[in-house]
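Hypothesis: this fold can be encoded by more than one sequence.
Test: take the structure tokens below, design a sequence, compare later.
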């Protein structure tokens, strides 16, 4: 009976993705219909730019946080939540200043892009990493997903009523504020002691402790998002259609979010249960690769339907492009999971950093070199290659840890 209860609890990881998927299915086509493909492209570009700010604000907590929370007591978890809020607030301040300056001095037509980018950066305040650390999918749904979905739908209503895209950013902002506050309240309610304080020195010390997680997360987001700004600069006419397909690819990747969360939650549970680091990492590595391959295959029949639906029939892709999008979703999933569930556990996060830097250099050079001759097929396959190169480096870090472990075991024997 306990086993069935655990299974039902894990199934709750499907709920946030189902809600996010339904929200996107509703929002994206309506926004394209209301604002037009060019208006949607401005929102998409703002979100893509904002993703870099998200990484900056989150300061590596999504990467290092789940394992840290899994090893902590209830009081320490609350302290870490408070520390994370202070560090993320301090990281967000420079972005607020930059955004304010941009809104004051940029031309009015850029206000939508600036507002969307700034609010998207505040997604770094999301408490999802905390709920993964305590393996609480119900909390993840009610305190994070529902709050953000409600804000998004409220913003959509505002856009529909006024045809002003800035209302979409306002709705996102409200949802993020509610989610962050709810996550803090959840951690506060679980503490055993009332006077669990945090000092300024602990807050500043956390900057150093989570810096590598910040670097890894920033590089992953860069790989996933760098193509849209590059195509906007160098791609010419292909920019608008790629903005739609890129959004579809990211939305398809959200289908894998329950798997990502279950794997992260299982990893955290294994650590909390006292299992060895290599055993935890090995199980996670195999599960991640198998899940990524299955996900890529499942995306093949879904991709053309999703493009037609989300573009309101304004975009179409051929078979080669469908395969590239599907493979890209599977590879992105694998790269998203490996640092959190494998390399952090093995203390080999540096391999992911190096691999992502190499892949970014390759991808950026490819787009800049081709320039105005860019086409959708080439861009999609370059993205796949960037993910693949990074995964090879992650595998090298995993292999290095295994070899080191066996060498130590041999010496001890």
């Amino acid at each position: 009976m306990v086993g069935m209860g655990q299974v039902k609890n894990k199934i709750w990881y499907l709920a946030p993705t189902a809600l996010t998927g339904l929200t996107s299915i509703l929002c994206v086509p309506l926004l394209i219909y209301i604002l037009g493909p060019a208006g949607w492209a401005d929102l998409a570009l703002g979100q893509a730019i904002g993703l870099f700010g998200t990484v900056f604000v989150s300061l590596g907590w999504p990467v290092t946080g789940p394992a840290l929370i899994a090893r902590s007591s209830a009081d320490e978890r609350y302290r870490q939540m408070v520390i994370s809020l202070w560090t993320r607030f301090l990281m967000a301040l420079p972005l607020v200043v930059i955004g304010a300056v941009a809104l004051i001095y940029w031309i009015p037509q850029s206000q939508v892009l600036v507002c969307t980018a700034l609010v998207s950066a505040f997604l770094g305040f999301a408490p999802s990493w905390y709920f993964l650390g305590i393996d609480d999918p119900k909390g993840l749904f009610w305190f994070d997903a529902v709050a953000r979905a409600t804000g998004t739908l409220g913003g959509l209503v505002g856009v529909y009523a006024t045809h002003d895209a800035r209302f979409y950013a306002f709705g996102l902002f409200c949802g993020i504020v509610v989610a962050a506050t709810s996550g803090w309240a959840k951690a506060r309610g679980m503490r055993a002691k009332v006077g669990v304080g945090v000092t300024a020195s602990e807050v500043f010390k956390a900057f150093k402790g989570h810096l590598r997680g910040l670097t890894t997360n920033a590089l992953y987001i860069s790989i996933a998002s760098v193509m849209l700004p590059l195509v906007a600069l160098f791609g010419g006419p292909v920019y608008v259609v790629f903005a739609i397909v890129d959004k579809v690819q990211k939305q398809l990747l959200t289908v894998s979010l329950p798997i990502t969360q279950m794997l992260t939650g299982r990893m955290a549970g294994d650590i909390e249960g006292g299992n060895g680091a290599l055993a935890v990492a090995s199980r996670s590595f195999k599960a991640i690769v198998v899940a990524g391959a299955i996900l890529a295959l499942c995306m093949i029949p879904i991709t053309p339907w999703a493009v037609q639906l989300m573009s309101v029939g304004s975009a179409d892709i051929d078979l080669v492009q469908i395969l590239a999008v599907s493979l890209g979703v599977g590879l992105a999933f694998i790269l998203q999971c490996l640092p959190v569930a494998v390399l952090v556990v093995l203390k080999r996060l540096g391999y992911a950093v190096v691999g992502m830097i190499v892949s970014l250099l390759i991808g950026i050079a490819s787009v800049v070199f081709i320039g105005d001759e860019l086409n959708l097929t080439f861009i999609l396959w370059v993205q796949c290659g960037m993910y693949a190169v990074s995964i090879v480096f992650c595998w090298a870090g995993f292999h290095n840890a295994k070899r080191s472990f066996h060498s130590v075991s041999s010496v001890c024997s």
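The CA atoms of residues 20 and 149 lie 7 Å apart. The mean pLDDT is 86.
Hypothesis status: open.
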